[in-house]
Amino acid sequence: MLTLLMETKNTNMISSDELNLESVRKSLIRQEDTIVLSLIERAKFPFNFPTYDYDPSSSSSSCVLSGSLVHFIVKETEILHAKVGRYTSPEEHPFFPDELPPPLTPPHNYPQVLHPAAACININDTIWKMYFDELLPLFAAEGDDGNYGSTAECDLKCLQALSRRIHYGKFVAEVKFRDAPEDYGPAIRAQDRDALMKLLTFESVEEMVKGRVAKKAMIFGQEVSLDDKEEDIKYKVNPAIVSRLYGEWVMPLTKLVQVEYLLRRLS
Ligand SMILES: O=C(O)C(=O)C[C@]1(C(=O)O)C=C[C@@H](O)C=C1
């Protein structure tokens, strides 16, 4: 708890005068480490289906949870973290925002960098569905080792890291608007999603990101042994899956957040 409190207080939140494309991209690059390492930790456990299984109609269930174990762990963790002010940070977004208590800690004055309308953008429902329906089956081995609590804890860390990275699109969008209001203004006033998406997309950057996260998965996730031959190296998480995660989900969802933010930027 103290660590979390210190983490919340010692935020490396970007101030308005430090806000530029280089600084926000530097943060996105640093967040790649957290995402790749959280996937590697989740890959320690097999799929462990009972972590996600909840059938209210099953009379045999002695389970008293109102949902699956992973729902319970995420909800209860968010309630605890809300009490120490985690979700007063513009960089943090809860998966269950409707059930959170007010902070018990003094308010922290975060730099007011974003337009107030940013607070209404939360796409965690989409992130939750992507993670459990698309991503997890790609890299979690089949099987059940009974470690359902630890498995759910790893899922929580993956969800939090992905949510933070994708919603960081609000800061990227703010930078892009400030750098070129004459370009973004007409598309915003026309509420033209396609024009905004075209303006904010840098395909060369996306290719670099996909290559870098695959390389991080290789370096961070390499099974190390002293007599490995080059062709026998194994990885805890397939680097191609990490590259696909970014190409098919993380960057498109980050761009969705950017578009949603920009549509509201002049309201
Ligand atoms: O770096 C940017 O310009 C971003 O908008 C971030 C990001 C990303 O999600 O990594 C998204 C869209 C761009 O096409 C390139 C990269």
UniProtKB/TrEMBL annotation:
<dbReference type="GO" id="GO:0005737">
    <property type="term" value="C:cytoplasm"/>
</dbReference>
<keyword id="KW-0028">Amino-acid biosynthesis</keyword>
<dbReference type="InterPro" id="IPR037039">
    <property type="entry name" value="CM_AroQ_sf_eucaryotic"/>
</dbReference>
<feature type="domain" description="Chorismate mutase">
    <location>
        <begin position="148"/>
        <end position="258"/>
    </location>
</feature>
<dbReference type="InterPro" id="IPR036263">
    <property type="entry name" value="Chorismate_II_sf"/>
</dbReference>
<dbReference type="GO" id="GO:0009073">
    <property type="term" value="P:aromatic amino acid family biosynthetic process"/>
</dbReference>
<dbReference type="GO" id="GO:0046417">
    <property type="term" value="P:chorismate metabolic process"/>
</dbReference>
<dbReference type="InterPro" id="IPR002701">
    <property type="entry name" value="CM_II_prokaryot"/>
</dbReference>
<dbReference type="Pfam" id="PF01817">
    <property type="entry name" value="CM_2"/>
</dbReference>
<keyword id="KW-0413">Isomerase</keyword>
<dbReference type="GO" id="GO:0008652">
    <property type="term" value="P:amino acid biosynthetic process"/>
</dbReference>
<dbReference type="GO" id="GO:0004106">
    <property type="term" value="F:chorismate mutase activity"/>
</dbReference>
<keyword id="KW-0057">Aromatic amino acid biosynthesis</keyword>
<comment type="pathway">
    <text>Metabolic intermediate biosynthesis; prephenate biosynthesis; prephenate from chorismate: step 1/1.</text>
</comment>
<protein>
    <recommendedName>
        <fullName>Chorismate mutase</fullName>
        <ecNumber>5.4.99.5</ecNumber>
    </recommendedName>
</protein>
<keyword id="KW-0963">Cytoplasm</keyword>
<dbReference type="InterPro" id="IPR008238">
    <property type="entry name" value="Chorismate_mutase_AroQ_euk"/>
</dbReference>
